[in-house]
Amino acid sequence: MKHAKRLSAVLLAVLMLLSLSVSALAEEAPAPDYTTGTPWPDIDLEGVVTEDTAAELKDNFALYVNKDRILKLEIPEGYSFAGTIMDLSLQNAEDIRNMFLGDAPEEHDARLAYNLFRLMMDWDSRDALGVAPLKEQTDAVESIDSLDALNAYFLEVPAEDQLAGLWSSGSEVSLDDASKMTLMTGECGLLLGDSAEYEALTAYGTIKKEAFSELAEKMLVKLGYSKDQALQKIDNCFAWESMLAPVIYTTEEQGGADYLARINNHMSHEELAEAEGGVPILEELAKLGYPAADDYLVMNPDFLVRLNEAYTEENLPLIRDYMIVHGVIGAAGSLDRECYEWSNDCGNAISGSSGILDDETAFSSSVAGMLAWPVARLYTETYLKQEDKDRIAEMIEQVLDAYHGILTEADFLSEETKARAVEKLDAIEPRVLFPDSWEKYDCAELNFDGPEAGGTLTEASKAIARYYLAEDVRDYIEPVDKEKWIMTPQIVNCFYNPQDNSISIMGAFAQGDLYRSDMSDEELYGKLGIVIGHEISHAFDRSGAQFDKDGNMSMWWTEEDYAEFQERNDRLADYYNAMHPWEGQDFYGSIMTGEACADMAGMKVMLKLAAEKEDFDYDTFFRSYAEVWLTKEPLQMAYIRINDNHPMGYLRINTTLQQYDEFLDFYGITEGDGMYLAPENRVAIW
Questions:
Q1: Which listed residue, 158, 246, 459, 663, has the most CB atoms within 10 A of its CB?
Q2: 384-435+511-681, which class in CATH?
Q3: For residue range 291-331, what is the model confidence (pLDDT) as tens digits?
Q4: What is the C-alpha to C-alpha distance for residues 345 and 329, in angstroms, rounded to an integer?
Q5: pLDDT tens-digit profile of 460-476?
Q6: CATH placement of domain 131-335
């Protein structure tokens, strides 16, 4: 274990000055020319594509297919991007909104969701309460005057009444044995997200810092602090984060292939008791109801060392203010109208969106997140059809069958590894649109009053938090239920879970321009089909490849095959590292290889199926794929995408297609064309 030295007050002051000076430099730097990307400009970025922008099929297929649509796209008010996926999200938001506009349902779980929606809409009660609920919480933190009092806060104040924690803890599915739960402890949250921001503040880090600071200042002044006191608390919060950030995994580290191995650290009860020092991690877990364990997952031992060293009387002002600043930022959206609008403004500044959603749309979506399974059943019964579930399930079986060829034809694999890969493929469980039954997902033990009975949003939120904590404790005690879905039908997304070896194609995703019952094979293959292939491919990307067919993190490859697999991932990372959304801005290729691998393998498996179709229309197929990733977004979202493990939309189109002769040959793309990639330079792993 690497022991970090305790930061002195002098070093802390230097860190703060460095942070401010880097921020100032970022603000003074001239704006880049955002049209200078290589090998293609970031056509997803708002303003890059104009009427005069040349759009040649052989040079930039993404732009050729989507230019006219990009020019017509407008980012909707209250949202941070536009495009095909946003169209699905908008339809989804409207569908969920409409579910809450009728009469109150009789069924218990549905009524919970209905009551929560009406509590959110009850501005009279919310405005009458104002910040009083939050003031009680901040006062409790302000009264902490010693480490003993700090420990008492964590051990005696109910979890739902605490403002913010200094570490994370709870239960997780074991990485080593997916049939069991394990207790874990991990890092705290950082306002700037990426710990690398505390070493060198980026332009986007500056945006986030300013937005969160402005919101925190307004909230603190409203709570009764002076402006100077508020600013000091914000400085103290960032000072505490700066002390911890050097030992918190960066975004790039979290996206690395070795991240799972890095966080899979185990300590016995006695070892953790010694390592935690004065930090009451084990006591808090016991207070929450978790029984003592023989083995604990310690996700970041260096963080535990640093936290223990910084957990001192001297640093109490920083600790208190970290908790208060995080608490007021997190609570703003659930308080009165003024705080809610301030929170919305903060979100707009960070995401690049503008305006504000109407209350019915915003709050129905919030309910769908807070009470996911009650809303899931309502959504399924209202909008989803068994015949679509059956058709998509049949298609998944076809894709799974075709994927055998991807694995057996992989010339870098030994027969031993191929056999195990096929065994894992055959064990994949498809989860399509919605569960077959709802018994596992009821919330019978959750109750709170609606507005007519005098309930408040604050009380309901606390009841929900208590319920989920109790559920987590129950889940820890019982064996893992691998048949239980972890993603709900109303989510516009799809998912591969390596710990139960399942793919989930959610009901809200298989809608609109991604799936219609009357779609041609070409459209269906190019849209939902490639997504299905993509999710299957995650079982064999750099993360999924570390798990066996039963969901356990174990080495099922031969040593030689896995070394070659890693080499292929490295080449894929280098391929993206050589690209730039605009001059002077890098990508992090190392974090993108999992999603890029899945995109390319998804395309390959659908090309296999296409080859079996007589008179298959490849032009419609390739165009359909390009339409999926049609996007327009502001600069803030571009920064977010740069730090995302998914390549930007235009890259998902062009970099995927240029790997395959079927695409290049169909359009006559040859050396010298912008879409051409020589066979020796192609990087598709499968």
A1: 663
A2: alpha beta
A3: 999 999 999 999 999 999 999 999 999 999 999 999 999 99
A4: 12
A5: 999 999 999 999 999 99
A6: 1.10.1380.10
